Amino acid sequence: MNLAFIPSPSTGVIELGPIPLRGYAFCIIIGVFVAVWFGNKRWVARGGKAGTVADVAVWAVPFGLVGGRIYHVITDYQLYFSDGEDWVDAFKIWEGGLGIWGAVAFGAVGAWIACRRRGIPLPAWADALAPGLAIAQAIGRWGNWFNQELYGKPTDLPWALEISEGPNRLAGTYHPTFLYESLWCIGAALLVIWADRRFRLGHGRAFALYVAAYCAGRGWIEYMRVDEAHHILGLRLNVWTAIIVFVLAVVYIVISAKIRPGREEIVEPDRDATPAKGSDQDGSDQDGSDQDGSDEDGSAKADADEQDAGAKKDPLTKDEPGKDATAENAGAAGATGAAEKS
């Protein structure tokens, strides 16, 4: 008999009048807010604008939830499409079941769309979000505690997790793999924060480090779990996924450091800055490109030309200046010549 263990909640739902507050959903919501808040602080510290992380998250979070659910349903299809199962349960996300691999992949697609709309680099945004995302996962894993799911092998350790009798589970004490992963994610967040300050990671390398660190822990934690899963060559599917993604993340860090060393100088262009002269239609009045301004300048120039032309003519006769003087000079010259001859 265990003298100490981690108790599980008797229910995963708290009734607030007619509104059920589900622990699983509550943990996810808190995690999202923490990730956005911390990511915003890091984004502003790197020269970005406050609120940009939240604006991109508006796209990334829905995509991530859909992707996480799709991955879970595909990899655990027997829970929803086998004989005796109700396929409608595949849409009951509040009952648990989100695959982090699908959540990150689809969330990245949503973030990419939002970043393109705002004209900011996705890798820089991902670097700012990385440690906050790891903390969000640490918080979200407690949703598994509320649902009494995804625990490990039986154990009598003092920190064993007590599981009560229920559908598809036997009462007993098991390894609290949700707690192991939660603590590991906090460690991954601290690692990314330290490495980012120490090496000034940029161009997506901070995010890649988070991915690699998470996969390293997910591999051995996944190996401890006893929930039903598909196996390939004796290993659980998620273990293989962790290995492959870990290798890809490390390769990205190495190649990226050689191709694009250092960190981005500008992560978010100042779109509110005054446009250069002639670079914006609104500024056309300043450089004389406006039609009204052109007419005024043209009229003024024409008037000036007419005045110059008039100045070259005699105001009374309108004859060309110097004509009479030329005649007089010619007459004087003739008289002088005659006098000389005489």
Description:
The protein is mainly alpha-helical. Helices cover 59% and strands 5% of the residues. The chain is built from 11 helices and 6 strands. The strands form 3 sheets. A two-stranded antiparallel sheet has the order 1-2. It has a two-stranded antiparallel ribbon with strand order 3-4. Helix 5 packs parallel to helix 8.
Using only C-alpha atoms, the radius of gyration works out to 38 Å
How would the global form be characterised?
globular
Q: Unreliable runs, pLDDT <50, ≥5 residues?
A: 273-302, 309-342
- How far apart lie the N and C ends? 156 Å
Q: What do the pLDDT scores average to?
A: 82
> What structural class results from the helix and strand content?
mainly alpha
Quaternary structure annotation: single chain
Helix content: 55-70%
Let me know the number of strands: 6
Biggest sheet character? 2 strands, antiparallel
Secondary-structure element string: EEHHHHHHEEHHEEHHH
Portion in strands: 5-15%
Task: Describe the structure in brief.
By secondary structure, the chain is mainly alpha-helical. The protein has helices at residues 23-45, 52-75, 78-81, 100-118, 122-140, 142-147, 177-199, 205-224, 237-259, 291-311, 323-341, and strands at 13-16, 19-22, 161-163, 172-174, 231-232, 235-236.
